[in-house]
Design brief:
Elements: H1 3-27, E1 31-36, E2 44-49, E3 52-58, H2 66-84, E4 91-96, E5 115-120, E6 123-128, H3 142-151, E7 156-160, H4 166-173, E8 178-183, H5 186-198, E9 207-211, H6 214-217, E10 226-231, E11 236-237, E12 246-247, H7 248-262, E13 263-273, E14 289-292, E15 309-314
Parallel strand pairs: 3-4, 7-8, 7-10, 8-9, 10-13
Antiparallel strand pairs: 1-2, 2-3, 5-6, 11-12, 13-15, 14-15
Helix pairs in contact: 1-2, 3-4
């Protein structure tokens, strides 16, 4: 790639990093995104995790040979390190692509474990910058997690598709009466428990950690039980551990109807997903409130570039 293109990338990176780092300092945010496909020739999503950089290159067609591409990635890594003023060993480059097979989202991408502890407010989370498709902490739900924390005291909380349990940790910190966390992956259930333990919040009597197919588990949820339900399903899933595949657009009404039955009369559901073309079928839901809170829950570093939607649904 021509030197002038790399220089343009460096200039763009300096501009956006200076801008977002300033806001992050003001808001006391240690982990934030500062570059997201800003230049088509550099299809990265770059995030700062308290001084370590996670740079995911999205797979696309390019004209570079393998060796040339490796040289280009190395040059980009050097530029990122210079802009952020850190050692290049703290810049973790990753090719973001789905692994083949039904359980790709849970397969390791690397064998070298690079776990770190990063703060978010007064809480801390275990992240992994090398091994998996994602780091273990979705930065775009920073505000939504705080909403749950503020409302959690004395409440019975259900966290579905819980991933590494960040919502669970926030609910526990907020004083939830009980929390049930569910995910298909044993890896993520264990990770969620470790996050609770690291924050000295785990209580075996209050916290139930369940590994299993969410779509099957919700069939057996007791009625009128949960005060807060967090549900952030995948866009599509066909894991061999599931009885049927899942499509969020096709199946969201069935999913939400079952969750509304599990809610108390004053219960709330925080429902989000990453399908860009998602359309909520409000009329099909027996709910008094279906409110789009996407804009209200979008952090500063995702403004204009957030492709997930978020809804507050009340019985």
């Amino acid at each position: 790639m021509p030197e002038n293109k790399l220089l343009m990338f460096e200039n763009r990176l300096r501009k956006v990093y200076k801008h977002f780092a300033k806001i992050a300092r003001k808001q006391q945010v240690a982990c934030f995104r500062f570059y997201d496909h800003d230049m088509p020739e550099f299809p990265f999503v770059i995030e700062n995790y308290n001084g370590a950089i996670h740079a995911a290159e999205y797979k696309r067609r390019h004209t570079m040979e393998e060796a040339e591409h490796e040289t280009w990635v190395a040059a980009c890594k050097e530029i990122i390190a210079q802009v952020v003023a850190i050692d290049p060993t703290l810049v973790f480059m990753k090719m973001r692509q789905r692994k083949e097979g039904k359980e790709g989202q849970y397969q390791k991408l690397d064998t070298a474990k690079q776990e770190r502890i990063v703060p978010e407010g007064d809480l801390n989370f275990i992240i992994n910058l090398t091994d998996y498709l994602d780091t273990g902490l979705f930065l775009d739900h920073r505000i939504t997690r705080n909403l749950v924390r503020q409302e959690a005291r004395g409440k019975r909380v259900l966290n579905l598709f819980c991933y590494t349990g960040s919502f669970t940790v926030y609910a526990a910190k907020g004083g939830a009466r009980s929390i049930t966390s569910v995910d298909l992956s044993k890896t993520y259930i264990n990770w969620a428990k470790r996050n609770l333990q690291f924050n000295k919040l785990f209580d075996a009597e209050k916290h139930e950690m369940m590994q299993g197919d969410v779509m099957q588990i919700i069939n057996d949820l007791p009625k009128d039980t949960f005060d807060i339900i967090i549900c952030d399903p995948p866009t599509f899933s066909n894991s061999k551990r599931m009885d049927e595949d899942f499509d969020v657009q096709r199946d969201h009404v069935t999913l939400l109807r079952k969750l509304l039955k599990a809610c108390t009369d004053t219960g709330k559901i925080y429902f989000s997903n990453n399908y860009r073309g998602f359309s909520m079928d409000r009329d099909a839901l027996p709910a008094s409130i279906v409110r789009d809170i996407t804009a209200a829950t979008t952090p500063f570093d995702f403004q204009g570039k957030l492709h997930r939607s978020c809804y507050l649904i009340q019985k």
